[in-house]
Amino acid sequence: QITLKESGPTLVKPTQTLTLTCTFSGFSLSTSAVGVGWIRQPPGKALEWVALIYWNDNIRYTSFLKSRLTITKDTSKNQVVLTMTDMDPVDTATYYCARHKQYTHFDVWGRGTLVTVSS
Amino acid sequence: QSALTQPASVSGSPGQSITISCTGTSSDIGSNNLVSWYQQHPGKAPKFMIYEVNKRPSGVSNRFSGSKSGNTASLTISGLQGEDEADYYCCSYAGGSYVDSSPLFGGGTKLTVL
After folding, report:
1. Whose CA is closest to B89, among B41, B37, B45, B53?
2. Which of helix, strand or coil describes residue A92?
3. Rounded to whole angstroms, how far apart are CA atoms B40 and B107?
């Protein structure tokens, strides 16, 4: 069974750095054509892709957040970590991690974690 | 890169069929067959329903089907059931080669089963 679980702070202050961890099981991030991505969803709004890291360390970031993002993986721990600097209230959202397969789709999603940015 | 365009809402009665469109450009939907669709019930994580335009993963009802024409992809749900009431999101990829492209989601469509 494949599972992913997001963890991190539920509340961050403006200008702080957010660090989220995705811990997964049931697959390996050293398998060809497998990736793990982050997708966020502001309350009441649409899904928005944020970042993606592949088995071969190929990394993709959404262009409008690229300067603030870093995504890394620890294959031995089955974890992917996303950091986002200079948080703003508009970054308030549920953040999901999901397995990305064959470069074509997100096939298994975590439950998501709500991050609120407020002073 | 702007979000893909979906109608804000669609509705249908039980047993009917509905189609949700997803319009992009020649740089995303029109450039490959990497369209996927996700269903999201309130308060839940998205669920993967269709990939590579018209492929259905195991466990997804055959009432769900996908297609594409030019820069527009579509999700059709036949034999509507109450449990189909949810938000639906399309996703395509843009930006270069198959392995270097980046995902792009649609704005979402709320399906109401009357």
Report:
1. B37
2. coil
3. 13
| H helix runs in chain A, sequence order | none
Angle at Cα B32 formed by Cα B68 and Cα B27, nearest 5°? 100
| β-strand pairing of B36-40 with B86-94 | antiparallel
Residue of A nearest to B56 (CA): A107
Q: Measured between alpha carbons, how far is residue A74 from residues A53, A55, B2, B83, B88 in Å? A: 11, 11, 32, 38, 32
Q: Does B91 contact A106 at a Cβ distance shorter than 8 Å? A: yes
For testing contact with chain B, the best of A103, A108, A111 (most B CBs within 10 A): A103
Kindly indicate the confidence band of residue B1, based on its pLDDT and cuts at 50, 70 and 90: low
pLDDT digits (tens, 9 = 90+) for A11-52: 999 999 999 999 999 999 999 989 999 999 999 999 999 999
8 A C-beta contact, residue B5 and residue B22? yes
Say how far residue A91 (Cα) sits from the centre of its chain: 13
- Tell me how many helices (H) and strands (E) chain B has: 0, 9
* Token pair 């750095």: residue: A17
